[in-house]
Known about the structure:
alpha/beta, 8-stranded mixed beta sheet, 15% strand, 4-stranded antiparallel beta sheet, 14 helices
Amino acid sequence: MGNKYDEIIVEIQSRLDDKRLKAGGKLPSIRRFAKEFNCSINTVMKAYSELEKAHLIYSVPKSGYFAVGTDMPKKQKPMIIDFVSAGPDKSKMPYRDYQHCMNQAIELYKEEMFQYSHPLGLPSLRQQLSAQLQDLQVFAPPERIAVVSGSQQALDLLVSLPFPNNKNGICVEQPTHFSFIDSITSRGLKPIGIEVNQKGIDLNYLEKVFRERNIKFFYTVSRFQNPTGCSYSNQEKKDMVDLAQKYDVYIVEDDYMGDLDTRKKAHPMFAYDSSGRVIYTKSFSKVLLPGLRLGLAVLPEALMKSFTQAKFAADVHTPVLTQGALEIYLSSGMFKAHIEKLRRQYKKKGSILKKAYLEHLPPNTSFTGGDSGFYSTVVLPGRMKAKHLVKHLQKKNVFVQDAAPMYLPEYLKENRIRLSVSQVEDRKIAVGVKKIGDGIRALAHSYL
Length: 448
């Protein structure tokens, strides 16, 4: 519950802060927020209860929850630093440009919107994606590309589909994002983990798993992994592809952060695959508008038929209007210009974060990642538990995430917190990290 609970609290506080939710304004219903955050009604109720205790909202029986009014001048409001939210910086999103593309798409695709489209996406968009992917060293013909309703849909379908190797085990990095773990376990499967950290991955152990555990596919985020923020070297990528070929294992490479990589010679695993073992997936959620729910999968010929059938059964096809708008946005050159700006912005944020770590974290604390500005973990000292630090920092208006739900039980680490600075103002990053360092020092006494 903890992660969604924190996210709901942060979101409401953010809406109060920037006046999207004014004094006396009604909050979203509990059912609506439960659906929006993909969590239980009980989680939303507990989050609202916490906000009510903090006198930020109040409830009216049979009417709902409302924002509390305040006459406190803006400059006196406490500074809230949200290291939990890992979406794109709202202030840097191309709303007007994309709105223009949407308007154009309505005119260009007005006929297509009155009929069913191809399950794998508009042919013209797939053609455009084929050209755009070449910038990432992914060379794939349009007919091998599937447009999906967010990369999570592609992952869900791949978990369910039978593969040509007739295996059923799924190997995942440890840690990895909990939504994919849930996708596997909800189907009655038990994921098999392999640990990753700042030093990379144990290739000898990965080979042992591939050799002995009947692995259908290995799921990996090869660049700026969630939650560690780590990336593999090109050599590690080549070695993993070689192992997959040797032991008849597929690799599902989730490269949703690839657009933000500033290293010119850093290629995806797909670029090293000559046998059709790597399935490449990508989302536009981190670099455009998450609500668009658009992604893609590059599939081997052997999976095209079954994936097409599964995609049709799931939603017939991804909405034509959003596909059309993305095609226009890509073909106009606006996407390329937007990405170049984002790379500079997030690289700067990552540099500020790592500098703040070195200045403010205690010597017995370590960290991973941070290069992209999106994901990083802090390893707490000794027996200190992340959940205790999370609660301590909430009282200081600093919100961080306990990384424990991102681990399988046999790999559980209770002394990791995940940070993202993607939505944190540059001036607040060092302030927040200092409070984290102070919190670690304050709690350390209770573990003596």
